[in-house]
Amino acid sequence: MAPAGRADTFPKLLVRNAEIFRGRPAFRLKDFGIWQTWTWEQVLAEVRGLAGRFASESKLGPSRSANFVLAANEIATNSVVHGGGKGSFRIWQDAVALSCEVRDAGHFDKPLVDRDIAGADAYGSRGLWLANQLCDLVQIRTLPDGTVVRLHMRRKASHDQETAANN
Prior knowledge:
CATH architecture: 2-Layer Sandwich
Number of strands: 6
Distance between the termini: 51 Å
Strand content: 25-35%
Shape: globular
Order of helices and strands: HEEHHEEHEEH
CATH topology: Heat Shock Protein 90
Strand order of the largest sheet: 3-4-6-5
CATH superfamily: Histidine kinase-like ATPase, C-terminal domain
Structural class: alpha+beta
Number of helices: 5
Radius of gyration: 18 Å
Protein backbone atom coordinates (compact mmCIF):
# COMPACT_ATOMS: atom_id res chain seq x y z
CA MET A 1 0.00 0.00 0.00
CA ALA A 2 1.19 3.53 -0.77
CA PRO A 3 2.39 5.85 1.98
CA ALA A 4 -0.30 8.04 3.51
CA GLY A 5 -0.87 11.25 1.63
CA ARG A 6 0.58 9.98 -1.63
CA ALA A 7 -1.73 10.56 -4.59
CA ASP A 8 -0.83 7.43 -6.55
CA THR A 9 -4.33 6.61 -7.82
CA PHE A 10 -6.99 8.63 -9.58
CA PRO A 11 -9.39 8.77 -6.58
CA LYS A 12 -6.57 9.94 -4.28
CA LEU A 13 -5.41 12.46 -6.86
CA LEU A 14 -8.95 13.75 -7.32
CA VAL A 15 -9.55 14.29 -3.60
CA ARG A 16 -6.11 15.79 -3.02
CA ASN A 17 -6.38 18.19 -5.96
CA ALA A 18 -9.93 19.22 -5.01
CA GLU A 19 -8.63 20.15 -1.54
CA ILE A 20 -5.49 21.93 -2.74
CA PHE A 21 -6.59 23.54 -6.00
CA ARG A 22 -10.35 23.96 -5.34
CA GLY A 23 -11.37 26.60 -7.90
CA ARG A 24 -8.44 26.15 -10.26
CA PRO A 25 -9.01 24.39 -13.60
CA ALA A 26 -8.86 20.59 -13.62
CA PHE A 27 -9.41 20.27 -17.34
CA ARG A 28 -10.85 22.08 -20.33
CA LEU A 29 -12.86 20.76 -23.22
CA LYS A 30 -14.31 22.32 -26.31
CA ASP A 31 -18.08 22.01 -26.58
CA PHE A 32 -19.73 23.43 -29.72
CA GLY A 33 -16.68 25.61 -30.35
CA ILE A 34 -16.70 27.07 -26.82
CA TRP A 35 -14.07 26.12 -24.27
CA GLN A 36 -15.57 24.82 -21.03
CA THR A 37 -13.45 24.72 -17.87
CA TRP A 38 -14.05 22.33 -14.96
CA THR A 39 -12.42 23.04 -11.60
CA TRP A 40 -11.23 20.31 -9.25
CA GLU A 41 -14.14 21.06 -6.91
CA GLN A 42 -16.59 20.64 -9.79
CA VAL A 43 -15.07 17.31 -10.84
CA LEU A 44 -15.23 15.95 -7.28
CA ALA A 45 -18.83 17.13 -6.90
CA GLU A 46 -19.75 15.44 -10.18
CA VAL A 47 -18.23 12.13 -9.12
CA ARG A 48 -20.06 12.21 -5.78
CA GLY A 49 -23.25 13.34 -7.48
CA LEU A 50 -23.39 10.24 -9.69
CA ALA A 51 -24.54 8.00 -6.83
CA GLY A 52 -26.94 10.68 -5.64
CA ARG A 53 -28.59 11.14 -9.04
CA PHE A 54 -28.93 7.41 -9.49
CA ALA A 55 -30.46 7.08 -6.01
CA SER A 56 -32.97 9.88 -6.49
CA GLU A 57 -34.08 8.48 -9.85
CA SER A 58 -34.54 5.04 -8.30
CA LYS A 59 -37.51 5.97 -6.07
CA LEU A 60 -35.61 5.35 -2.84
CA GLY A 61 -36.99 8.47 -1.18
CA PRO A 62 -34.86 11.29 0.26
CA SER A 63 -33.69 9.56 3.45
CA ARG A 64 -32.84 6.23 1.81
CA SER A 65 -31.13 8.04 -1.09
CA ALA A 66 -28.90 9.90 1.37
CA ASN A 67 -28.16 6.61 3.14
CA PHE A 68 -27.21 4.91 -0.12
CA VAL A 69 -24.90 7.76 -1.17
CA LEU A 70 -23.19 7.77 2.24
CA ALA A 71 -22.76 3.98 2.22
CA ALA A 72 -21.40 3.99 -1.36
CA ASN A 73 -18.97 6.76 -0.43
CA GLU A 74 -17.75 4.77 2.60
CA ILE A 75 -17.21 1.62 0.54
CA ALA A 76 -15.40 3.50 -2.23
CA THR A 77 -13.20 5.22 0.36
CA ASN A 78 -12.39 1.82 1.91
CA SER A 79 -11.33 0.61 -1.53
CA VAL A 80 -8.87 3.48 -1.88
CA VAL A 81 -7.50 3.19 1.66
CA HIS A 82 -7.48 -0.59 2.21
CA GLY A 83 -7.77 -2.12 -1.25
CA GLY A 84 -4.46 -1.21 -2.78
CA GLY A 85 -5.45 2.32 -3.78
CA LYS A 86 -7.53 1.43 -6.80
CA GLY A 87 -10.68 -0.42 -7.66
CA SER A 88 -13.76 -0.38 -9.81
CA PHE A 89 -17.22 1.02 -9.09
CA ARG A 90 -20.44 -0.15 -10.74
CA ILE A 91 -23.98 1.03 -10.09
CA TRP A 92 -27.23 -0.39 -11.45
CA GLN A 93 -30.90 -0.78 -10.73
CA ASP A 94 -33.58 -3.33 -11.47
CA ALA A 95 -37.28 -3.53 -10.67
CA VAL A 96 -36.58 -4.26 -7.00
CA ALA A 97 -33.36 -2.55 -5.89
CA LEU A 98 -30.62 -0.04 -6.49
CA SER A 99 -27.22 -1.70 -6.16
CA CYS A 100 -23.58 -0.77 -6.40
CA GLU A 101 -20.39 -2.78 -6.33
CA VAL A 102 -16.84 -1.89 -5.41
CA ARG A 103 -14.15 -4.37 -6.44
CA ASP A 104 -10.49 -4.07 -5.43
CA ALA A 105 -7.35 -6.05 -4.62
CA GLY A 106 -7.82 -5.99 -0.83
CA HIS A 107 -8.51 -9.05 1.33
CA PHE A 108 -10.46 -9.58 4.54
CA ASP A 109 -9.32 -11.97 7.22
CA LYS A 110 -12.17 -11.23 9.62
CA PRO A 111 -15.55 -12.89 9.06
CA LEU A 112 -18.54 -10.61 9.57
CA VAL A 113 -16.30 -7.53 9.46
CA ASP A 114 -19.34 -5.35 8.76
CA ARG A 115 -21.17 -6.48 11.93
CA ASP A 116 -18.69 -5.21 14.53
CA ILE A 117 -18.19 -1.52 15.25
CA ALA A 118 -14.64 -0.43 15.94
CA GLY A 119 -13.77 0.79 19.42
CA ALA A 120 -13.97 4.48 20.30
CA ASP A 121 -10.18 4.77 20.16
CA ALA A 122 -9.92 3.33 16.62
CA TYR A 123 -9.35 5.78 13.80
CA GLY A 124 -11.72 5.07 10.91
CA SER A 125 -12.60 1.36 10.61
CA ARG A 126 -16.35 2.02 10.58
CA GLY A 127 -17.14 2.18 6.85
CA LEU A 128 -18.40 -1.37 6.40
CA TRP A 129 -20.28 -1.27 9.71
CA LEU A 130 -21.93 2.01 8.69
CA ALA A 131 -22.87 0.63 5.25
CA ASN A 132 -24.42 -2.38 6.97
CA GLN A 133 -26.52 -0.07 9.15
CA LEU A 134 -27.66 2.08 6.22
CA CYS A 135 -28.37 -0.48 3.47
CA ASP A 136 -30.89 -3.30 3.21
CA LEU A 137 -28.17 -5.77 2.25
CA VAL A 138 -24.37 -5.67 2.22
CA GLN A 139 -22.53 -8.56 0.56
CA ILE A 140 -18.79 -9.03 1.02
CA ARG A 141 -16.89 -11.63 -0.97
CA THR A 142 -13.15 -12.18 -0.67
CA LEU A 143 -11.82 -13.92 -3.76
CA PRO A 144 -8.30 -15.01 -4.70
CA ASP A 145 -7.73 -11.77 -6.64
CA GLY A 146 -9.39 -9.35 -4.19
CA THR A 147 -12.66 -8.34 -2.57
CA VAL A 148 -16.10 -7.43 -3.90
CA VAL A 149 -18.53 -5.41 -1.77
CA ARG A 150 -22.10 -4.98 -2.98
CA LEU A 151 -24.68 -2.65 -1.48
CA HIS A 152 -28.39 -3.11 -2.12
CA MET A 153 -31.32 -0.81 -1.29
CA ARG A 154 -34.89 -1.81 -2.12
CA ARG A 155 -36.59 0.73 -4.33
CA LYS A 156 -39.41 2.65 -2.66
CA ALA A 157 -42.23 1.09 -4.68
CA SER A 158 -41.23 -2.49 -3.81
CA HIS A 159 -40.45 -1.51 -0.19
CA ASP A 160 -43.91 0.11 0.17
CA GLN A 161 -45.61 -2.92 -1.41
CA GLU A 162 -43.82 -5.28 0.98
CA THR A 163 -44.73 -3.13 4.00
CA ALA A 164 -48.40 -3.01 2.93
CA ALA A 165 -48.45 -6.79 2.40
CA ASN A 166 -47.11 -7.37 5.93
CA ASN A 167 -49.80 -5.19 7.58
